[in-house]
Amino acid sequence: MPAASDSPPVPAGARPRTVLYVEDNLANMITGIEQLVARRPDLRLLTAVDGTLGIQAAAHRSADGDPDGHHLPGISGVEALKVLRADRATAHIPSWPSVRNAMPRDIEKGLQAVFFRYLTKPIKIDEFMHTLDAALEFAEEQLCRRK
Fold first, then answer.
1. What is the C-alpha to C-alpha distance for residues 60 and 56, in angstroms, rounded to an integer?
2. ∠ CA 66-3-71 to the nearest 5 degrees?
3. 122 preceded by cis ω (within 30°)?
4. In a domain, 93, yes or no
5. Could you point out which of 26, 69, 135, 136 has its C-alpha 20 to 30 Å from the C-alpha of 146?
């Protein structure tokens, strides 16, 4: 991840936002999501390599959106999201898995259980960016409701 000084300036009037990406496959992290998030100067990417570290990062940085791998070492994406939902400081964070082998039943189950959206790999750029925008808007609405 580039150093903060290497990041492009946030546009006037835009609030800097943080996206947490939990991914156990470093190649996916570096070549995919990092490049997509870099397109948005108002976003900063925070990464974690497993669900436990993702929970810790979200709790400390209060991410605005969390695309994660559904099957993560140590804790599943569903379990990680349940932990986030139980904490008032992180309950507003929308999460969506990006998985390679998702069966329709798995997608339906995930959406009913906890996930904001459910994306499949390979990631479709337009779908990811649309989901990211929707997640950021959702997170903002949830924060406003809490106040």
1. 6
2. 25
3. yes
4. yes
5. 69
Question: Is 117 domain-assigned?
Answer: yes
Query: Using DSSP, how many helices (H) and how many strands (E) does the chain show?
Result: 6, 5
pLDDT in tens, 63-97: 565 555 444 457 877 788 888 888 888 888 888 88
CATH code, domain carrying 119: 3.40.50.2300
Q: Backbone dihedral region of 47: left (phi > 0), alpha (psi from -120 to 50 degrees) or beta?
A: beta
CA–CA separation, 48 and 77 (whole Å): 12
Based on its alpha-carbon atoms, the radius of gyration of the chain, rounded to whole angstroms, reads: 14
- In what helix (H) or strand (E) does residue 95 lie, and over which residues does it extend? strand 95-99
Partnered with residue 46 across adjacent β-strands are 20
